[in-house]
Amino acid sequence: MNQRADSETLADIGLAWNHGFAALGPDFYTELRPTPLPAPHWVSTSAAVAQLIGLDAAHLQSDEALQAFTGNMLLAGSRPLASVYSGHQFGVWAGQLGDGRAILLGETASGYEVQLKGAGRTPYSRGGDGRAVLRSSIREFLCSEAMHGLGVPTSRALCITGSPGPVRREEVETAAVVTRVAPSFVRFGHFEHFAANGLEPQLQTLADYVIDRYYPACRGTADFGGNAYAALLQAVSERTARLMAQWQAVGFCHGVMNTDNMSILGLTIDYGPFQFLDAFVPGHVCNHSDTQGRYAYNRQPNVAYWNMFCLAQALLPLIGDEELAKQALESYKTVFP
Question: Alpha-carbon distance 250 to 297, whole Å?
Fold first, then answer.
C-alpha cells in the first residue's frame, strides 16, 4: 500500500465513507493511490447521481472535487484499492484479471460504491497503461445514464474529468477519468477467482458478504433446505435473466459479456464497445474483436446463462450439492424461457 504523508492535504467534499469491501481483507484487493493527471478540467457532471451518493451540488463543482475525481488528491475518508478477480473471456478461461484501470474509493454512507475508471495502473493492469480516453468515457457516461432513464439496472456516472495528458491507443488521444457509482462492483469473476485457486475460506467470506449486504433474504430461506448459497445462486440467476430481457427489449448490445463483466447484482456494468440496434438485426455484433460473433445481440441471453453456469461452478464448493445448484440455476429459464 502507498501510505500518504501525514502533512498531505486531503480533499474534503462532505462525503461520509464506509469500507465494507475493504474489510474483507488483503486477499481481495491491493490498496494503492490513483496516478495524477495534468491540468484536469470538468467535462460533465450529474447532479442526480451526486444526490444519490449524498454529495452536495456545490461540493461537486469545487476544485477539490475536480482534483479528487481525477485522482490528483485523496478524498478524506476514502480508502482507494483495486480488486482482484478472474474470469472467462470469449468462452475461454483467462486466469487472474482484476481492476486494471479502476480504483474503488469506498462506499458512501448512502450505500453506493464510488470508483474511478482511468485513474492509472494497478497490479492487475497486465501491461496496460491504466488510462481511459475521453471519447469512450463520454460514451460510458451517456449510456449509463440513458440506461437508467430506460429503467434498465446499471452502474451510474457521477462525472467525467478530462486532461490534455496523452493516451496512446490506435492513435494518440486525450485522457479522462469517469467516476462510476453502483451499490457494488462485485462480479462473477470475483467468485471464480477464489474457486479456481482452491481458496474456499475466501470464497465463503465473499459469498457471506454479498448475501448479508445485498441478498439478506437468502438467510433463513425455506428453499433448498435452507441452503443460503443455493438461494444466492437462484437470486442472481433471476436478476440476470431479467437484465437480459431488458437489454433485448431496448435493443442494447453489450459486446463484452465475459464473466468478469457480469455484475453479481444484475446490473449493466463495464460499458465498452456497446451499441444500440438502429434496426432489428438479430445477429448484430458490436465488438470488432468478436470475430466469431459470440456476443451478438441474439446470443446475449444464452451467453448470460452460460456465465451463470460458470458462477454455479464457482459456488458449488459452498452449495455442496450439484442437484441443488442445477435447481437454482434453472430459475434463469423460468424468468427468461
Answer: 11
CA-wise closest residue to 43 among 180, 181, 118, 138: 138
260: annotated active-site residue = yes
Range of the domain at 197: 188-335
- On whether residue 9 sits in a domain, the answer given is no
Q: What is the mean pLDDT of residues 120-138?
A: 96
pLDDT at 145 over 70: yes
Please tell me the number of Cα atoms within 13 Å of 179 on its side-chain side.
Answer: 30
> 56 with 169, same domain?
yes
Please answer whether residues 314 and 207 qualify as being in contact, where contact means their C-beta atoms are separated by less than 8 angstroms. Answer: no
Residue 3: pLDDT band by 50, 70, 90 thresholds?
Answer: very low
Please tell me the distance from the alpha carbon of residue 40 to that of residue 51, in angstroms, as a whole number. Answer: 23
Judge if 149 and 47 occupy the same domain. Answer: yes
Whether the predicted model's global pTM rises above the 0.70 cut: yes
Residue type for position 289: S
In a domain, 260, yes or no: yes
Q: Provide the b/e sequence for 222-253 (b: ≥16 CB within 10 Å).
A: ebbeebbbbbbbbbbbbbbbbbbebbbeeebb
Query: Catalytic one among 27, 56, 223, 260?
Result: 260
Whole-number average pLDDT of the chain: 96
Q: Name the domain count of the chain.
A: 2
